[in-house]
Design a protein that fits this description.
Elements: E1 36-42, H1 48-66, H2 72-75, E2 78-82, E3 96-97, H3 104-111, H4 115-127, H5 130-140, E4 146-150, H6 155-159, H7 162-174, E5 177-184, H8 191-208, E6 212-217, H9 225-232, H10 234-242, H11 251-254, H12 265-281, H13 283-287, E7 290-293, H14 302-354, H15 366-369, H16 375-379, E8 386-387, E9 394-395
Helix pairs in contact: 3-4, 4-7, 9-10, 10-12
EC number: 3.6.5.-
Enzyme class: hydrolase
Keywords: Cytoplasm, GTP-binding, Hydrolase, Nucleotide-binding, Phosphoprotein
């Protein structure tokens, strides 16, 4: 399990308009690494940790079958990162674990916080050291295929917090990254719950602007055909709404008779009208969405998920990375412009100083005193050297001979 020092420099602020810069002499981003980073996000109970374990086992098994001669380390195609400080059992062996750095229960006691506040504060504390984590991931990204991040079940803690935004932006700036939104398929048979998941997915996709994969999990319990039909056929979703209570499982989805209790009057009209309106608004969102159906228990659909991840990587390189290049170039140009302005101010100050009487004293000629003020600017190259006026020796940037 990866370890890093308990203290270190704080991670620099990263937001949607900030891109970590490479060498100051170039605005070109480094070559993308071999690995693709996957952020698993979803509501509590959707099966993210179980799905992460299935990804780890599936990728490792596939690689082992492909090459019997590889060592154990080379067979491992996934690098697992646990970002949930409150989880008791992950179902996989994390390579980087937030629980090794932050004690969730101690945070609750010391700061007098509840469960959600403790998770949020723990994630914030972990993010202050995320620069060290990122350096580990960047090294491993040259060796593995996938870096899987298992996020807390309290979806708003990661997606709408500063720490979650920092982690997401840092990853996206360092390597190809995609978001996998995991849905609990059996609980989505209710039209209202289905629509809530779609709204969450839509908001996360447009907030991160990363390649997005919608994962219908637990298909061994409930097939996801109804969900894909509701996404592609507005009338099918409307029929499910009209059959009964929008907050209870639809018989269209479960293939079982409904509860028999139908909403009537103003209540039914309001619910149906709201759901219909949202379905129409999200129709364009559905058309651009990449969906897969999986079972974390049986492994069904996992090859399709890895295929979707490969497609998401291609989308990242084609769409997201050029934007990073543009931002990096703009940042470098702004930095160069600022340096030029500072140099111009320095040259102006030097010219003003050159108008003073010469320090040559006796032995100095009139030609020396009337030397062109602009000649200093012509000779100065801004190489960072410092001239010692006492010894007339050139010092390096550290002040030594």
């Amino acid at each position: 399990m990866a370890q890093f020092p308990p203290s270190g420099p704080s991670v620099p602020p990263i937001d949607g308009s900030s891109v970590p810069s490479g060498p100051s002499s170039s605005s070109t981003l480094p070559e993308p690494p071999k690995a693709t980073s996957i952020l698993l996000i979803g509501m509590a109970g959707s099966g993210k940790s179980t799905f992460a374990g299935a990804l780890s086992r599936s990728a490792t098994t596939s690689e082992a079958v492909a090459s019997k001669s590889k060592s154990k380390d080379e067979e491992t195609q996934t690098y697992m990162v646990n970002l949930d400080p409150a989880v008791l059992k992950t179902g996989y062996e994390p390579n980087v674990d937030i629980r090794d750095t932050v004690d969730y229960k101690r945070v609750m006691e010391e700061y007098n916080l509840g469960p959600n506040g403790g998770i949020l504060t723990s994630l914030n504390l972990f993010t202050t050291k995320y620069d060290q984590v990122l350096s580990i991931l960047e090294r491993r990204a040259q060796e593995v295929e996938y870096i899987v991040h298992d996020t807390p079940g309290q979806i708003e803690i990661f997606t709408w917090s500063a720490s979650g935004s920092i982690i997401t932006s840092a990853l996206a700036s360092s390597m190809p990254t995609c978001v996998a939104y995991v849905i609990d398929t059996p609980r989505t048979t209710a039209p209202a719950t289905f629509m809530s998941n779609m709204l969450y997915a839509c908001s996360i996709m447009y907030k991160t602007r990363l390649p997005f994969i919608l994962v219908f999990n637990k298909t061994d319990v409930q097939p996801s055909a109804f969900a894909t039909e509701w996404m592609s056929d507005f009338e099918a979703f409307q029929a499910a709404l009209n059959e009964g209570n929008a907050t209870e499982p639809s018989s269209v989805a479960t293939n079982r008779p409904g509860s028999g209790r139908r909403r009537t009057g103003e209540d039914a009209g309001y619910i149906n009208s709201l759901m219909n309106s949202m379905a129409l608004v999200l129709d364009e969102f559905y058309s651009n969405l990449r969906t897969v159906s999986v079972s974390s228990v049986t492994g069904e659909g996992l090859p399709n998920f890895f295929k979707a991840v490969d497609e998401a990587r291609a989308e990242y390189l084609a769409d997201y990375r050029p934007e990073l290049e543009r931002l990096a170039k703009a940042k470098a140009e702004a930095r160069d412009k600022k340096k030029k302005q500072e140099l111009e101010r320095l040259m102006k100050d030097m010219k003003m100083g050159g108008a003073a009487p010469s320090r040559g004293g006796v032995g100095s000629t009139a030609g020396d005193q009337e030397e062109d003020e602009g000649s200093y600017g012509d000779r100065y190259e801004g190489d960072g050297q410092i001239i010692d006026p006492v010894s007339s020796k050139t010092l390096n940037s550290e002040g030594t001979d």
